[in-house]
Amino acid sequence: MDRMNRRSVIGMLATGFVAFLFSPSVADATSAPVIRAGDTCKKLGRRTTDGSKTFECTKTGAGLQWKRVKATTTQPTTSEVKVLDSSALVAGRSATAIVTSGGRNFAVVLTRTAGGVVAFNRSCTHQGSLVNQSSVNELTCPSHGAVFNASTGAVIEGPAARALTQYPATERGGSIYVTI
Question: What are the extents of the domains in the chain?
Fold first, then answer.
């Protein structure tokens, strides 16, 4: 009888401890950080959205501070940019490049397939790390191991759930062009 009571007490304590560890706290549910224009920020250029307001970390006379960014309704600009010479991209292999379009830089991975050249954004759709070629037809995220098909951008293995963003790619006159 003593042994049963001791086991029961230990079982109840263990169950209560596990429930305590995995239950949401009141602080998590009620106190989300609030950002206001003029508050101090830590990383120049970082953007974040709080509710329906977007803020960017900017440098001011008082240091780094959050500044509210107005929503733009203009259409994003697209442009065709020469990325590589055709001879630089071997069949079945991938190459990476930085494409500048509309004043912004985009990390791109290009692969020559049987159907032509395909281009994808290098940012992993899980958390944004830059993917690299790991085998003949695979791109791998070094952060969490997500694997993508280099020809289609489709997810082969998670944790990523969405395919890589594809950009139109063309080849003419011995050069490869990507439209962003």
Answer: 34-73, 80-179
Question: What is the third-level CATH fold of 80-179?
Answer: Rieske Iron-sulfur Protein (2.102.10)
**Average pLDDT of span 78-84:** 80
Helix (H, G, I), strand (E, B) or coil at 59: strand
**Cross-strand pairs, 85:** 175
Give the Cα-Cα-Cα angle 174, 178, 180 (nearest 5 degrees).
160
The burial class, CB within 10 Å (0-12 / 13-18 / 19+), for 96 is middle
Residues in CB range of 116: below 8 A, 6 or more apart: 169, 171
Distance separating alpha carbons of residues 2 and 103, to the nearest angstrom? 75
pLDDT recorded at residue 162: 87
pTM above 0.70, yes or no: no
